[in-house]
Design a protein that fits this description.
single chain; 380 residues; Butyryl-Coa Dehydrogenase, subunit A, domain 1; Butyryl-CoA Dehydrogenase, subunit A, domain 2; 3 domains; four-stranded mixed beta sheet; four-stranded antiparallel beta sheet; 11 helices; 10 strands; binds acetoacetyl-coenzyme A; binds flavin-adenine dinucleotide; AcylCoA_DH/ox_N; EC 1.3.8.10; acyl-CoA dehydrogenase activity; FAD
């Protein structure tokens, strides 16, 4: 068993670390305050190859492994989780979904643009009445021969306003329940496709979250992904990998908050000494460090499972469940270690605490991860 990172992985880590420090850190507080999408930063991430990291180079991707991807996700998330969620959705939901299950024509037309960052993607499963209960899809796609007619509402869609291409899950044969669901590629600007206002959020405020409405949108049949009725499996299989990306995001938020708290504890003095010399603070740092290391092992194991061709449904869910709890706990403690300064924007940790919460909600809440894990455990 080898726990060390390869030379290549270290180079990727350093590149992402430098990018986060030089390009994401300046302006991160302002983007959060103003809910400003990181347009320039996303463009640069596309140029660096961060938006299609695991995609085959023949479609414009980086041809990298999942370990590289989680390393980049951790480094970006240490500084700006609003930016890293764009990376996560584009890589592990949209690009992966298309590369694994799209046909050659779909890959040529859409994947190449997405993998190079010329276009941004969105993944549209959630609805007002179908979040955790994802089989209860009410958006309909009626088969009209050479096309489908799409009607319904998707909500909470990340990259909702900025995306060019949308993977939309919809019900075609209601009587077949989850076996009657399909996944489609929908382009921005198609008649009847409306983008609602941007959500005003607690955290990841720079990311772009919208409700989408589909009113008799004509979707050509060639834009259906996979066989008729494959849409729910498509969503579940794609999300299994997506959860590894969000676990890495949670790990990064935790590690970023911990780094700031440790440095602060070495310079802030009370009662004649640096606060790290008070055992209450030193023990907090010890607990944070242990939990972050444990989370990192789970994230790496899930990424390794994916790279090895093992089933990663459970290891991805375990990594997300644990790392998101660590992100929440660590960021709360980081605010505590900063005292009053932790409560103001200038010191970053209050933003990290707000950003941490979403990792327990999206791509399956913590309760849903426990359903996935327990079903996996109890399956014979
Ligand atoms: N891989 C392949 N197939 C899977 C699967 C997986 N990981 N998980 C389930 N399935 C299949 C099942 O085998 C079953 O098919 P068969 O009947 O052919 O066997 C079918 O899907 C239905 O499965 P269940 O009976 O288990 O379905 P369920 O209604 O009990 O729900 C669930 C299961 C795991 C709770 C699922 O609904 C779920 O994951 N909910 C959470 C939804 C979610 O994560 N949404 C995230 C939206 S995207 C997002 O959030 C992005 C972002 O923020 C950035
Ligand atoms: P509900 O399903 O209504 O759950 C409410 C509560 O009940 C939760 O605590 C949940 O864990 C619990 N619960 C529900 N069912 C059970 C059960 N069986 N057992 C135990 N507890 C249960 N979706 C997309 O499709 N694409 C995106 O890009 C996307 N981006 C998002 C970005 C943001 C900022 C947010 C907030 C959400 C995003 N989502 C996206 C939606 C997200 O995936 C859902 O919010 C999430 O899956 C939970 O669904 P819900 O909000 O409907 O909560």
């Amino acid at each position: 068993m080898d726990f060390s990172l390869s030379e290549e992985h270290l180079m990727i880590r350093d590149a992402a670390r430098d990018f986060a420090k030089n390009e994401l850190l300046p302006g991160v507080i302002e983007r959060d305050n103003l809910q400003k999408f990181p347009t320039e930063q996303v463009k640069k991430m596309g140029e660096l190859g961060f938006l299609g990291m695991m995609v085959d180079p023949k479609y414009g991707g980086g041809g990298m492994d999942t370990i590289s991807y989680v390393i980049v996700m951790e480094e970006l998330s240490k500084v700006d989780a609003s930016c890293s969620v764009v990376v996560s959705v584009n890589n592990s939901l949209v690009c992966y979904g298309l590369e694994a299950y799209g046909n050659e024509a779909q890959k040529q037309k859409y994947l190449t643009k997405l993998a190079t960052g010329q276009s941004i993607g969105a993944f549209c499963l959630s609805e007002p009445e179908a979040g955790s209960d994802a089989t209860s899809q009410r958006t309909t796609a009626i088969d009209k021969g050479d096309h489908y007619i799409l009607n319904g509402t998707k909500n909470w869609i990340t990259n909702g306003g900025t995306a060019d291409f949308y993977l939309v899950i919809a019900q075609t044969h209601k009587e077949k329940k989850h076996k009657g669901i399909n996944a489609f590629i929908v382009e921005k600007g198609w008649e009847g496709f409306e983008i609602g206002p941007k959500e005003d959020k607690l955290g990841i405020r720079g990311s772009d979250t919208h409700t989408l409405n589909f009113n008799d949108v004509k979707v050509p049949k060639e834009n259906r992904i996979g066989e008729d009725g494959f849409g729910f499996k498509f969503a579940m299989k794609t999300l299994a990998g997506g959860r590894i990306g969000i676990a890495a995001q949670a790990l990064g938020i935790a590690a970023g908050a911990y780094d700031l708290a440790r440095e602060y504890s070495k310079v802030r003095k009370t009662f004649g000494t640096e606060i790290c010399n008070h055992q209450a603070i030193a023990f907090k740092l010890a607990d944070m460090h242990v939990e972050i290391e444990a989370a990192r092992h789970l994230v790496m194991k899930a990424a390794w499972d994916k790279d090895q061709g093992n089933d990663y449904t459970m290891s991805g869910a375990m990594a997300k469940l644990y790392a998101s709890q660590v992100a929440m706990d660590t960021s709360v403690e980081a605010v505590q270690i900063h005292g009053g300064n932790g409560f103001v924007k200038e010191y970053h940790v209050e933003r990290m605490m707000r950003d941490a919460k979403i990792t327990q909600i999206y791509e399956g809440t913590s309760e849903i991860q426990k359903i996935v894990i327990s079903r996996g455990l109890l399956r014979d």
